[in-house]
Amino acid sequence: MKKEIDARGMQCPLPVIETKKALKELTEGTVEVNVDNEIAVQNLIKMATQKQLKNSSEKITEDHYIVRIEVSGHSADNTGSGGGSNEAGTKAPAMDERCYPDSREGGTLVVISADHMGEGDEQLGKTLMKGFIYALNELEKLPGKIIFYNGGARLSVEGSDSLEDLKKLEAQGVEILTCGTCLNFYGIGEKLSVGSVTNMYTIVELMTNAAKIIKP
Amino acid sequence: MAVCAVEGMDVGMGNDILFCKGGGCTAKLGPDVLKHVLDKLPRINNPNLLVGFEGSDDAAVYRIAEDMAIVQTLDFFPPMVEDPYIFGQIAAANALSDIYAMGGDVKTALNIVCFPEKMDLNILGKILTGGNEKVMEAGGILAGGHSITDADVKYGLSVTGTIHPDRIYRNSGVRPGDKLILTKPLGVGIVATADRVKEASREAMDAAIKSMTTLNKYASEIIRNYEAHACTDVTGFGFLGHLHEMLQREHTAVIQGKSVPYIKEAYDYADEFLLTAAGQRNRNFVEAYIEFENIEFALQEILFDPQTSGGLLVSIDPEDADQALEELKALGLPCNIIGEITELQAKEIIIK
Q1: What is the pLDDT of residues A63-89, one digit of tens each?
Q2: Is the predicted ipTM greater than 0.85, yes or no?
Q3: CA–CA separation, A75 vs A53, rounded Å?
Q4: How close B327 comes to chain A (CA, Å)?
Q5: Cys-Cys link to B304, which of A55, B223, B267, B282 (CB 3.0-4.6 A)?
């Protein structure tokens, strides 16, 4: 089967997007894309190569080029849109943390204002907080961001029991933010070991815009 | 300096050369094209012109007294976001940035406006309001401008600043051992492209807008307290294009891919091939100087991605790097030490 696309006059990234659509619909055959400049040819070839699809290009005139991309039965599974998770035999290097599907629920904000959870025995509170952060990792839908302030700032710095868990969360795309004023107040600014520093404006903005705030 | 030229522009020089045929993928001329043209212009030797064309620096610097020089730059482009007020802010932050990349202070600015005759003037009003706010935030004064009717909207500023002639940050001047600091996340070009085809999340676009509307003033003022040997702002030629200019083929930069700050979603969009023509042009221009050691495709694209109102790229004395970074982090944007300068190796840029 052959599909033809006329992407002349289209601006990047439209030729690539149109081609991706056509590739998705095709289990076997060739997609022939007409474009009007060489950069578009290069971007199409870049995509085809990444998807491990056989490709060729031809210059017809100064402003007419044809790119042919072949889909064979075997590589059809490579034509899906999940560019990040292509497995079998791809030359893509180990993508370590990045292979996780994006399981963040962007609008959820976790606010941690102390290094312990709940009132009562402080030691128990600390154990609970460690457990809480560990359990966050296990959620099916991860929060978009976690903010640490006041005593909470002690959790994102060197020596914190929760560091490993926080790094895991960060590796999955959860943004970790710690209040800079608090770090300075406790004199631990240099020990921040995960995420970045934030300020009150950002904290207010994030809290105001959050779809859901979780405060243990 | 006018590194941001506009499509459809034609410059007569002996033979009339028509640059962009129109319908190009972005509004910026590729670096190789630009170099080709600039190389043909006569060089002017005036001892007071401290920084001109030749080093492909960010702004021109002209000495007017022993202890005072003026810094001049101009930048304008078509909208990359839909909100005219935000576009005004971004265009202004981008134009003002060149003054900060040189280490100067903003004094006055003039509006440059192209606007269709039949379009709603309220839109222009919003663009100019956004721009003016950024000029005021920079501590400068909007002192006038020039507008013409045109088929498409374009906006920017011509900015004049001041600087001490002995304290100019040039593009070149890196020293082996220097650490490289990047003060804003990369990927805003990819995110804006994804947004144009309605594939960007609101959060990604918010992060890009926050980064693009942030003045480099604050980062520049921090850097001045430390020993910086070279500085530029990362714009249309992408991180690698500007790093290449900085190295002058005299030094090598070893970059830690994992340390490079970028807008997270840009990685996913690059994997979806939401790529610009300008990014590919940047790749064509500098790829030969670069060695990627197992760097994934998406990260490569982010490193080539043309930035609008990008951050400062600073080559800083290694003793100062950590402390400067800590101050920069407090500004609230993702930033990091991303690598270091070595003696020239087989490749000019190595990314691990």
Answers
A1: 899 999 998 865 444 444 433 333 333
A2: no
A3: 7
A4: 10
A5: B282
